[in-house]
Design a protein that fits this description.
Largest sheet: 5 strands, mixed
Number of domains: 1
CATH architecture: 3-Layer(aba) Sandwich
Oligomer: single chain
CATH class: Alpha Beta
Distance between the termini: 12 Å
Structural class: alpha/beta
CATH topology: Mannitol-specific EII, Chain A
Strand content: 15-25%
Strand order of the largest sheet: 1-4-5-3-2
């Protein structure tokens, strides 16, 4: 298994997020991480501000995905929060601020070590390149089943260190 040194549990999977915008969706997940004591309060505004400048939407087959993240100084404990939106919301596309993608699934990264970012992005991108996995993530309501699916994918993944 790729050892990503993360705190991750089904309590960090949010389903049925109702949001009118990308920043509202990000705020919902960021506040959840703050309430769990995994990030500093500054994480909430920092991750929203970063999204405005460096968009994280990925146009993937089936459902759009976003990978919001921000600087390490806002993180208490390295973690990932998965947010499944009830209805997709438009996010700007990573590297193409003029384009938008309707995002259904967010992988919010809260990383303490800058070098972890590449490994975690590789892991997420490996997962989101599989339309069948995205379909299961987007439609599953049981956080335990989502957790098992994500852990199985991570265990089978080879990450370049």
């Amino acid at each position: 298994m790729a050892d990503l040194g993360l705190t991750f549990s089904n309590e960090l999977i949010l389903t049925g997020i109702k949001a009118a915008s990308d920043l509202e969706a990000i705020e919902t997940a960021a506040k959840h991480l703050f309430e769990k004591g995994l990030v500093k309060e500054s994480f909430i505004s920092a991750i929203q501000e970063r999204e405005k400048v460096f968009a994280t939407g990925l146009p993937t087959e089936g459902f759009g995905v976003a990978v919001p993240h921000t600087d390490v100084e806002h993180v208490v404990e390295q973690t990932i929060c998965i947010g499944i939106l009830e209805d997709p919301v438009p996010f700007k596309v990573m590297g193409g601020m003029d384009e938008e993608v309707d995002v259904k699934i967010m992988f919010m990264l809260a990383l303490k070590e800058p070098h972890s970012q590449l490994a975690m992005l590789q892991a997420v991108i490996g997962m989101v390149q599989k339309p069948d996995i995205l379909e299961k993530l987007a439609t599953e309501k049981d956080t335990g089943a989502i957790y098992d699916l994500v852990m199985e994918e991570l265990e089978n993944m080879e990450i370049e260190e």
